[in-house]
Design a protein that fits this description.
The complex is a heterodimer of chains A (436) and B (292). By secondary structure, chain A is an alpha/beta fold. Chain A has two domains: 30-137 and 319-359, D-Maltodextrin-Binding Protein, domain 2 (3-Layer(aba) Sandwich); 146-316 and 389-435, Periplasmic binding protein-like II (D-Maltodextrin-Binding Protein, domain 2), CATH 3.40.190.10. Chain A has 21 helices and 14 strands. Chain A has helices at residues 2-23, 42-55, 68-71, 75-79, 95-102, 110-115, 118-121, 124-130, 153-158, 172-184, 198-207, 214-222, 237-251, 264-272, 285-292, 331-341, 344-355, 374-386, 392-395, 402-414, 419-435, and strands spanning 32-38, 60-66, 88-89, 131-132, 135-136, 142-146, 148-152, 188-191, 276-281, 298-302, 314-317, 322-323, 358-359, 388-390. In chain A, strand 1 (32-38), helix 2 (42-55) and strand 2 (60-66) form a beta-alpha-beta unit. The longest helix of chain A is centred in the N-terminal third of the chain and has 22 residues, at 2-23. Chain B has a two-stranded antiparallel sheet with strand order 1-2. Chain B is built from 13 helices and two strands; from the N terminus they run αββαααααααααααα. Chain B is mainly alpha-helical and 292 residues long. In chain B, helix 3 packs antiparallel against helix 4 and helix 12 packs antiparallel against helix 13. The chains are: A alpha/beta (436), B mainly alpha (292). Chains A and B meet through helix 5 and helix 20 of A and helix 12 of B.
């Protein structure tokens, strides 16, 4: 009797253990997806994560905020470690991305491309940006316009400035006149966060296409790849023209006092509080203004072209930034997450509605874009009629582009170097990049 | 003591020291050797190292940014260390002599050391902005204008960064110097007073010579810490405009994490580490020599 009771109890315990093991699968570590995202964009990526959890019961998304400086540097060691995230933040124009791909640190995302039909749903330029040796290793989850000059409507009115109806500033002198009129009212003119660096080189992205032919510009965007012939050198007059125009803007005092030492977030806040007349920013900034100061009336313009006969286009970028490390513990679930982010529904629900981000894919219905700020809607319409240019620093590896030219352009504006010296450095970097 | 007792004691000492030595090997010797290994290779942070011999070191000889950074680092380190020690002496002297409210001042002068350096850098970088910065606002209120762009040229940015670093680093040096001054026997001052020396003469002729070893050591430590400091410079200017205010740690950071050129960054780190090690040894020698 005792023996039978013991057997029964033992059996019950064994069954209990098995059941516990099975029921434990809900909190199994395999069901936790670790996703990195860019610090400062919490709201958008929390929305993606929450929506994904809702659509996939039992899955927990663990978000990790990564600072910009970290994402291009020390995050490399995390991505290649045994504790690699499932979805990693790797800016596609960073040397980290090139290093990871060439060393087999990132998974080929062909399955994501097929499942999300990205060959068709991504614009051609985005597909080209994400391609590396014929494969894709990173997705872009949004598109943005940048190097846009926002202006404060009330301050412009106070200074007697009429903003151009077609959003185009035609010359350095016109922008300088706006700056002078604002200063006369004790208002700081065009605010840029020069200390942060990248905003300064955004101007190069906006101006370079206005100083070159389309063929030269295309070559600048592609010649860093060893297989592409170099037909446009960085020592050519076009590149010099863009650099000299930036210097001319500095000499004409169109920027706020102390702009080279100004932080970009502080500079954002100054414009949002109505302390500066203009602000160089991106399409995402419209939503940030609305949130910080709903009563601020603002419009947008584009920087003056180098060739006065040319018509400036908006500068756009869909920088790929999300990859799946080879050492990710849940690669299939990570692919599912990327497909989820790229669905039309989530592009609208999380990216557009929460962050004001423009969709990366071209299948989102126009009606969904109606919730965007009217200025951003104008930019979209403008890009459809006038065209969109790819930003040079967003496209080429940053050892050739952003990381190299940011401090160089700072030095140019500070009077410590000249265009010819920068051109020589960039040309030398091109040759190094091609041999790597 | 017999030979066998001495041998036994020596063996026990080695056994007792072994865990610490192993720890030292793991957390100091190994990283240093690995750093040297990286400096002798081309490496992007991923995959195997690509042996480069002395290429990274020879390339640095022609690197204008590196040479400029050395100058900036020397100026920054010297300015901060001398400033900190001088100010610590000036503040500690009256307190060590029991000036009224000395208990209060002990706390006040130490307080900046409690603030995280990065936070201090961020606060001060805002304070020095034209127009809305606190420093410029005060200058504007006093009639000197409020549009001074302190951080946009190296001529003004470096002195400002030095001032901020002195502010941030003062507390520790102040406590050390105060402690040394309080060790000077009161009879020394009484004798000097009888001989007619006033407080200033006593300070220069009695106090400073008596605390000289501590001053030298503090000066060397501050010089080394400042030369290794990253956060104040980064928070104030990011090393810019261009590389005009980039000290060696900032340049090393950019080389490693912006350009993923760990080999060059490693070579810079090894060279600066060697110079600082030499500086530390000189400091130790000087302070010990006087004590002996």
């Amino acid at each position: 009797m005792i023996s039978r009771s013991l057997k029964f109890i033992s059996g019950l315990c064994a069954l209990g253990l098995v059941t516990a093991g099975c029921s434990g699968s809900d909190s199994d570590p395999d069901k936790t997806l670790t996703v990195q995202f860019s610090q400062g964009q919490e709201a958008v990526y929390q929305a993606y994560a929450q929506n994904f959890e809702k659509a996939n019961p039992g899955v927990k998304v663990n978000l990790q905020a990564i600072a910009t400086a970290t994402s291009t540097g020390s995050n490399l060691t995390v991505i290649t470690s045994d504790n690699a995230p499932d979805v990693a933040l790797v800016p596609g124009n960073s040397p980290a991305y090139t290093s990871l791909v060439s060393q087999g640190g990132l998974r080929d995302l062909s399955a994501v491309w097929t499942a999300s039909d990205l060959d068709k749903r991504y614009p051609e330029a985005t597909n080209a940006l994400t391609e590396f040796d014929g494969k894709h290793y990173a997705i872009a989850d949004s598109t943005s316009y940048y190097s846009v000059v926002y202006y404060n409507v009330d301050l412009f009115q106070k200074a007697g400035i009429t903003a151009p109806a077609d959003h185009r500033i035609t010359s350095v002198q016109q922008l300088a006149d706006m700056a002078t009129a604002l200063r006369a009212q004790k208002i700081q003119p065009l605010a840029v966060g020069g200390k942060s660096g990248w905003e300064i080189s955004w101007m190069l992205d906006a101006l370079l296409p206005t100083a070159t032919t389309p063929e030269q510009m295309t070559n600048y965007l592609q010649s860093w790849r060893a297989g592409t012939d170099v037909t446009a050198k960085y020592t050519d007059p076009g590149f010099a023209g863009a650099l000299n125009q930036i210097k001319a803007l500095g000499d004409a005092k169109v920027f706020q006092e102390g702009y080279l030492g100004a932080d970009n977030l502080q500079t954002d806040a100054q414009f949002q509080q109505g302390q500066t007349g203009m602000r160089l920013e991106g399409s995402w900034f419209a939503a940030m203004i609305k949130e910080a100061n709903p009563n601020l009336k603002f419009g947008w313009m584009l920087l003056p072209p180098v060739d006065p006969a040319g018509k400036t286009q908006l500068t756009g970028s869909a920088t790929p930034q999300f990859s799946i490390p080879t050492k990710a513990k849940n690669p299939e679930l990570a692919e599912k997450y990327l497909n989820f982010m790229l669905s039309d529904e989530q592009q609208v629900e999380a990216g557009l509605k929460v962050g004001g981000y423009l969709p990366a894919v071209n299948t989102v219905a126009d009606t969904a874009l109606a919730s965007l700020d009217e200025n951003v809607q104008q930019m979209i319409a403008d890009s459809k009629t006038t065209g969109l240019q790819s930003g040079w620093t967003s496209t080429v590896p940053s050892t050739l582009g952003q990381a190299l030219v940011d401090p160089q352009i700072q030095a140019l504006l500070a009077g410590d170097t000249d265009a010819a010296a920068i051109q020589a450095k960039v040309q030398a970097a091109l040759e190094t990049t091609r041999t790597k | 003591m017999t030979t066998s007792t001495a041998t036994r004691k020596s063996r026990v000492a080695w056994i007792a020291a072994t865990p610490a030595l192993l720890g030292l090997l793991a957390v100091f010797v190994y990283p240093v050797l690995d750093g040297v290994r990286i400096s002798l290779s081309h490496w992007s942070g991923v995959g195997p190292l690509d042996w480069a011999g002395l290429d990274n070191y020879t390339a640095l000889l022609d690197d204008a940014d590196f040479r400029h950074s050395i100058l900036i680092t020397v100026a920054y380190s010297a300015g901060v260390s001398i400033g900190v020690v001088a100010l610590a002496c000036a503040l500690a002297a009256p307190i060590s002599r029991g000036v009224r409210g000395s208990g209060f001042y002990r706390v006040v002068w130490f307080l900046p050391s409690v603030v995280p350096t990065a936070a201090a850098g961020l606060f001060w970088s805002t304070a020095f902005q034209p127009g809305y910065g606190a420093v410029n606002s005060v200058l504007g209120f006093l009639g000197f204008g409020d549009q001074h762009a302190w951080l946009v040229t190296p001529e003004t940015a470096i002195p400002v960064i030095i001032v901020v670093a002195i502010w941030a680093n003062l507390g520790f040096a102040f406590l050390i110097v105060l402690g040394a001054m309080e060790q000077v026997p009161i009879s020394v001052y009484e004798a000097a007073g009888i001989d007619g020396a006033g407080p200033i003469r006593q300070f220069f002729s009695m106090t400073l010579p008596n605390i000289r070893p501590v001053l030298i050591l503090t000066l060397m430590l501050e010089a080394i810490w400042t030369a290794n400091d990253f956060s104040v410079v980064w928070a104030m200017t990011n090393g810019g405009p261009g590389s005009s205010t980039a000290t060696l740690p900032v340049l090393i950071y950019k080389e490693a994490f912006s350009f993923t050129d760990y080999g060059t960054a490693g070579a810079m780190a090894v060279l600066s580490g060697a110079v600082l090690l030499l500086l530390g040894l000189v400091g130790l020698r000087l302070s010990r020599g006087k004590e002996q």
